[in-house]
Amino acid sequence: TRLFLHKRLFTLYKLHRLTVQLVKSRLWLSLGDLMFGNYMGQANLHVFDEWCGSTTDSLRNNVHFPLHPHIRTTVKALAVAPQQINYGLRIFGYLHPPADGEYVFALSSHDNSELWLSSDQSPLNLLLRAWVGKTGAEWTAPGEYDKFLHQTSTSIRLSNQTRYFFEVILKQNNQGTDHVVVAVSTQSRQTISFLNIVESRHFLLFCSTDESSLMIGDIAHIPQTAASHERNNVQKPNSAPDMQREDPRDTFYQVPMINSTLLSGLLPDCVYKPSYTINGYKLERYQGLDYVHLSYIYPNDHTRLTHLDTETTCYYRIKPQSFNSYMNVTKPLVHKGKPAAHSTIKPPKTEVHIEDKVDAVEPSELGDLSLDQWDWEEPIVQSMPVEANSNEKTKWTQTFKINNLGYQGQQSHALNMKCRLTGNIQIQEAEVQAIVEAYMDKFNQTHRGWTLERMVNVVMNVDVRNGKRYLLELEVREESGVLLRLSQYIYALKSTPSPPEKQLKLCNPVGFRWTPEAVVHFVIPVKNQARWVHLLIRDVENLVKDTGDLNFNLILTDFKSTDMNIEEALAKSKIPRYQYKKLNGNFERSRGLQEGINLIKDPHSIVFLFDLHIRFPSSIIDLIRKHCVEASPMDARGLWEVQGFGLLGIYKSDLDRVGGMNTREFKDRWGGEDWELLDRILEGGLEVERFYMRNFYHHFHTKRGMWMSNHS
Ligand SMILES: *[C@@H]1O[C@H](CO)[C@@H](O)[C@H](O)[C@H]1NC(C)=O
Ligand SMILES: *[C@@H]1O[C@H](CO)[C@@H](O)[C@H](O)[C@H]1NC(C)=O
Ligand SMILES: *[C@@H]1O[C@H](CO)[C@@H](O)[C@H](O)[C@H]1NC(C)=O
């Protein structure tokens, strides 16, 4: 009986504590709420209506924010699309993870949004974890999680012994497919394609408070937090474009190469013979452009210029407004069965105001919470109507489902001049993973104790008829712990019919390999561009310093510049290896390039036809090598190519074979010599690789003084 009494006392004490809390927050709950947890499976939603702007700060500037929302209600999933304009939302409550583990959260929204998650149940410990945008111009399609770098959080360790306070802030202006979605994945940050929308099926949601019986003036319970009060600038790190942020690709050349003898014989040999190379017939002038296609890349390298992707351009391949047809409205989830009689599910404590001290939750209080005890009703889904009916009441609580649409995966590799892609197209994640897994299996069958550290870069080239070529760039760890770089071309044959066993037919494309030691020559013709030449010399000095690459040579051909002594500047520079040639006559790009090419003695070195006015990353030498494959007397060939066709890398031997620059036809102005060279390169049976390169820019410049005439 003593024990019994103790238990009673303890229960009484707990009831008392709860009552104090409730009184403090002026919140009264009915017994029903307590028993059945009516506010489990929901989160608080506060609507701030009729307020323009598309940044989250514009919402914070609203005088009624955060204490006097127009509407206070709840939602059952973190995926809302009210189909309204000029409003802001604040969603908050608790997340209860189903299991201990690492979670990655992702956000998609139109327009800007923020996801805040506390390190525990206290609103005091909120941290900004992911966001869409900062300036108001950023938005995503529904379910598009890879447009911006910061849409995904880092990996966050959560325990199912506690619940976590969270907040979502959305600001929608007056156009686009308004929505906000929070998705979660238990996979690592590198692989996040299988994201689930946060809803009570996967992740128990709790309201922070039940507001249904409260008056608009009852505001003491409304959390005032970092999310509701701090400005963007405080939380969001510098505003450099995503492409300029660190990426393992940019410095991968510094990682020592794996001994290539370890890689030989892993895969069976196969003949590399793409169906799209030209076999002994002549092209019409400039027809070569039709024979070039794009390579795919993985992981996202953020070369995409997102500001160019409006809802109506080709990126989404969907007509404006028709994102709706991919969004299924859900009838809110409700739990049918009552929790098992023995379970003691309690509502979350109603700790609220930022000033209130928040008690830690005893694990035992949450110990019985389990998703399994809930019998969720199947949601009824229907496609979201395209036109929101303005007479209808806004569906603030309308939630929806959306599949991961993989907008990136819908991109075509065809070059379409009318519909410019704004960045690299991406390989589907599941595909890359299957390939890399299969390759590492082969590797581990032969060598023991190696592990895959990470996929740094994969470039895929698709031959619709024969199969796919992959450049695998993997960081691998030797048994001893040393990290090494594996960078190799492999081929996945298209098997017809597909093999019954789901094995990938990987093979080694004989002869198709790149040479890490190949000498790279930058060839640049100049005339009277002193400022740009000084800049180039400085950039090349830095390049040599950063890479320590001794197999690099700069070749400048100079049409008697009068504005600087280039020869002297080169001699004084810290560039260890360069060649200089003075030329007579007017500036002719083709002749200038060819004169430079003629200085190269070794046919097995790489010519990079370059230009002034270009900013390049220090990985450029490595990039050029990786994407130049010298044509053997057999069939394996390739070359590297960037913007336009004026900058290109090709082995000297191959360039000689196709006849070099056309100096006869193209003299005193740009007149399509790049495209003409492309025709001959393709006619030579070579293959062009084309993709966007990180941190590779063309500076704005005038053409004044460069060419003799002004027509260019
Ligand atoms: C918490 O997660 C662990 C696994 O991490 C699991 O074994 C346990 O059953 C979970 N507890 C509850 C109450 O869900
Ligand atoms: C690579 O491995 C082979 C065979 O083990 C060895 O003979 C060779 O010296 C190694 N090369 C380098 C550069 O370590
Ligand atoms: C939406 O509904 C359609 C048909 O009802 C279904 O085929 C589709 O898979 C649903 N999409 C999602 C994301 O639930």
Explain what this protein looks like in three dimensions.
The chain is α+β, with helices and mostly antiparallel strands and 712 residues long. The chain has four domains: 1-37 and 351-384; 39-239 and 310-342 and 398-409, Jelly Rolls (Sandwich); 248-281 and 295-301 and 424-510, Nuclear Transport Factor 2, Chain: A, CATH 3.10.450; 516-698, Alpha-Beta Complex (Spore Coat Polysaccharide Biosynthesis Protein SpsA, Chain A), CATH 3.90.550.10. Helices cover 18% and strands 23% of the residues. The strands form six sheets. Strands 1, 2, 4, 6, 7, 9 and 12 form a seven-stranded antiparallel β-sheet that branches. Strands 13-22-21-20-19-14-18 form a seven-stranded mixed β-sheet, covered by helices on one side. It has a seven-stranded mixed β-sheet with strand order 25-24-23-26-29-28-30, sandwiched between helices. Residues 9-37, 333-377 and 633-643 have low confidence and may be disordered. The protein binds 2-acetamido-2-deoxy-beta-D-glucopyranose (3 copies). One 2-acetamido-2-deoxy-beta-D-glucopyranose binds next to loops. Residues 328, 381, 401-403 line the site of one 2-acetamido-2-deoxy-beta-D-glucopyranose.
Chain oligomer state: single chain
Number of helices: 14
Give the total of beta strands: 31
Q: What portion of residues is helical?
A: 10-25%
Number of domains: 4
The structure class reads alpha+beta
Query: For the report, how would you describe the main beta sheet?
Result: 7 strands, antiparallel
CATH structural architecture of the largest domain: Sandwich
Roughly how many Å apart are the termini? 100 Å
